[in-house]
Specification:
2 copies of one chain form a homodimer. Helix content of chain A is 37%, strand content 27%. Chain A is α+β, with helices and mostly antiparallel strands. Chain A folds into 2 domains: 7-167, Ribosomal Protein S5, domain 2; 175-303, GHMP kinase, C-terminal domain (Alpha-Beta Plaits, 2-Layer Sandwich). In chain A, strands 1, 2, 3, 4, 5, 6 and 12 form a 7-stranded mixed beta sheet that branches. The radius of gyration of chain A is 19 Å and the shape is globular. In chain A, 57% of the residues are buried. Chains A and B meet through strand 5, strand 6, strand 8, helix 6 and helix 7 of A and strand 5, strand 6, strand 8, helix 6 and helix 7 of B.
Chain lengths: 313, 313
């Protein structure tokens, strides 16, 4: 039984959403970065943010505007908990990075709460709280980042009503490179830059490639994955918000990568490869391209993270 | 070696294109109906249509407007044939049926020609001629019907430039029911009724379902196939051209079918099921619904046809 003063520390991974041809419906988790969250059970009900580290003071400290606090609060209400909790969030990626920052915090929060209460709910049952959290933090209840961070792996959000998330198989050799250039692209701004209506032709091309990517993942057909990594919907607009984007894309194929695109709403950019050395090389080259523009960046290379959140203390 | 007077008779299957969530990119072949074509080698070059049976005199007899003749002519030019041919086309479905009528004739034609010349070209190499044929007959070079009829099975057209067609696995229990109500919906008219631009939201829902259907086919997950058989793009508009459409759809689920939608541009409607008896029952009920509206119809029930065209004489 949980009691006042019980503590837990949890890690939840960053995620790459959209994945070129899967706007708002595809996502995958990576090993690093990821947010950490300390949770302590309190007698007082509700959720209080005691501190947020690593955000430069940017994130709101009010519980109702914070994705982790919103998710935890919904969880506590759902299980009729007699307790509340204090949390400290350790941000390892800024909001506006395109790496599912709010999602990682929310997943860490709700996974911490569920774990400390003895896991009364399944991951599937936690998902609705995470959608509320995304809505509170980003103004839209999009499931791709939260589902990828929560379940780990490569996911397809097949439907929102009802919510259905499908895990896709991950080919053995697949490596991801992610560059986070130190620029901020706000999700809201990146959404507003997109047209509300798109040519039917682009919709068809996009969905054919989504089909191709899924088949490629299912059958470990790296050539097919490569040919399918195209985005006709968001990239043409959002790439304008990322200086040097065309050069980053060229660096992917020039160094033997399968392809890539904007991660989430940017400015992070991801690449997929079939080899760790290629993935590292792409990261190096991308960092150079940004450096030449006087933009610092972080590079992350890993396989797809299949574990999702984990208790670290 | 082929010589003057050599003859061949070929069958090519009808096809269901779009398949609810795969507008212009998905298609599958069925056992019946299908067009037959007689081809005879002549000394005179070019292609001559000696007769078309079963079309009520509707189809053009000029070679350059006929899908079969166009496809054969392109083939003959490609292989620098020293001969020409006379053809007789036996239509088993009218044009404007939504069953890929022009595609079946074209596939029968080009497969007959390739076969009689000793199969110098692979099916993949025949595909471009079939696109030209579709363009000549329907005014648009869409590959879903021709690829499904040519390769058989369930196909995804991943890309047009370059053309890439992917075969999807077919779950063992899958049965198709097709009703062809004796109404005419011209492909051109059915295309013009569609908006040129669609809401981004609909594009996402559609492509998520295409992903779901592909995963369902890959994993024989009939529940997922059922949930994914939704069309947000064409059905809302084209269903208005089919009297009783809502009742037909209700008959599918009411009788245990997985789901269905308009076949191609209609007026034919398809359903998928996991059992032959269910598939037959759905066909019966659909025919009754049309009969109550004084519309005669043909019902076809089969597994997905995996063979494609075949030489019958």
């Amino acid at each position: 039984m949980v009691k006042i003063g019980d503590k837990i520390k949890v890690f939840a991974p960053a995620t790459v959403a959209n994945v070129a041809c899967g706007f708002d419906v595809l996502g995958f988790a990576i090993d690093q970065p990821g947010d950490e969250l300390d949770l302590e059970i309190t007698a007082e009900k509700g959720v209080r943010i005691k501190d947020i580290t690593g955000d430069g003071g940017v994130l709101p400290r009010e519980a109702e505007k914070n994705s982790a606090a919103v998710a935890i609060l919904e969880f506590l209400q759902h299980i009729n908990a007699d307790f509340g909790c204090d949390i400290v969030i350790h941000k390892k990626m800024p909001s506006g990075s395109g790496l599912g920052s709010s999602a990682a915090s929310a997943v860490a929060g709700v996974f911490a709460a569920n774990s400390i209460f003895g896991a009364p709910l399944s991951k599937e049952e936690l998902l609705p709280f995470l959608l509320s959290a995304e809505d509170a933090a980003c103004g839209s209840a999009i499931a791709d980042n939260v589902a990828a961070s929560l379940f780990g792996g490569f996911i397809l959000v097949r439907s929102y009503e009802p919510l259905e998330v499908i895990q896709l198989p991950i080919p053995e050799k697949l490596y991801a490179t992610v560059i986070f250039p130190h620029l901020t692209v706000l999700t809201k701004e990146a959404r507003e830059i997109l047209p509300k209506e798109i040519p039917l032709k682009d919709s068809l091309r996009q969905s054919a490639n989504l089909g191709g990517l899924i088949i490629g993942l299912q059958t470990s057909d790296y050539g097919l994955i490569s040919r399918s990594l195209k985005d006709y919907i968001a990239e043409p607009y959002r790439s304008k918000l990322i200086p040097g984007f065309d050069d980053l894309k060229k660096a992917i194929t020039a160094n033997g990568g399968l392809g890539g695109s904007i991660s989430g709403s940017g400015p992070s950019v991801f690449a997929l490869s079939t080899d760790k050395d290629i993935a590292l090389k792409i990261g190096e080259e991308m960092a150079k391209i940004m450096k030449a523009r006087n933009i610092d960046s972080d590079i992350y290379v890993s396989k797809v993270n299949t574990q999702g959140p984990k208790v670290i203390e």
